[in-house]
Amino acid sequence: MLAGTRYTALMHKLKKNRVQPVYVTDEAWRRYLQYWESEDFQARSRQATENRNTEVEGPGTGPSKHGGGSVSFVTTQERLADSSDTPPTVNDLYLHLHTVNHDRMTFIDTRSERFYDRLQSRRQEVTQATPEQSVDDEAVYLNVAGESSKGRVYGLGSVGRKKRRYGAPGASTSRTPDVVPRASSMSLRSNYERLWSSCIGVLGWTWTK
Question: Where in the sequence does UniProt note compositional bias of the Gly residues kind (predicted)?
Fold first, then answer.
């Protein structure tokens, strides 16, 4: 996936600058230019532009945006993990990428704010309906977001493509429960802590809960 992302970025740069790099042969460059000028490519480009400018939440709401820049969502997730003692949840990643200056409060567009409102409403419903169980935030997110016809999950970019699809329109997989039995979540945490304790013991570190 990383190689594909980098290749896409490279081709975008070549198409935009139209400067032949030393590592591209004359024949390959000629074919690139020929394809970029073709009617098929121009039609695809126009359609992509229209899609990016679609106001999904209705007229006046503006096109969907994110604040990740040219950095892939997977890389952003890895950087968040490196800067924290705990792995970032899908909610952490969403708030980081869809709020102004990553402030986790000021959403960058109407769609991102409305989606987060739906996400929180669903989580509250699940919490109230099953107080004896732990909420699976990832399952809640994927169930609320659904899946597009192209297998994409809104708001997660390349991270969404790595995850299993839950409750996707037209998908054969069944909707995943929004909760995890408390006994199971406690068992997973216990196993994690035992594994982590073993690792840091070998490394000579110390750790307190």
Answer: 59-70
Is the pLDDT at 208 greater than 80, yes or no? no
pTM of the model: 0.52
Range of the domain at 6: 2-52
User: How does pLDDT run across 155-186, given as a tens digit for each residue?
Assistant: 777 565 555 443 333 333 445 566 554 444 44
Q: How many domains does the chain have?
A: 2
Q: What are phi and psi of 129, to 5 degrees?
A: -80, -30
| pLDDT at 189 > cutoff 70 | no
In a domain, 194, yes or no: no
> What is the distance of C-alpha 98 from the center of its chain?
11
Distance, CA of 80 to CA of 83 (rounded, Å):
5
Q: Which of 74, 54, 70 is nearest to 148 (CA)?
A: 54
Do 156 and 73 form a contact (C-beta atoms < 8 A)?
A: yes
Tokens 């490196």 appear where? 82
Rounded distance between C-alpha atoms, residue 101 and residue 68, angstroms? 10
Give the angle 192-81-200 at the CA atoms, nearest 5°: 40
**201 in any annotated domain:** no
Nearest to 137 by CA among 76, 79, 102, 95: 95
For the stretch 114-152, what's the b/e string if a residue is b when 16 or more beta carbons lie within 10 angstroms of its beta carbon?
ebbeebeebbeebeeebeebbbbbbbbbbbbbbbeeeeb
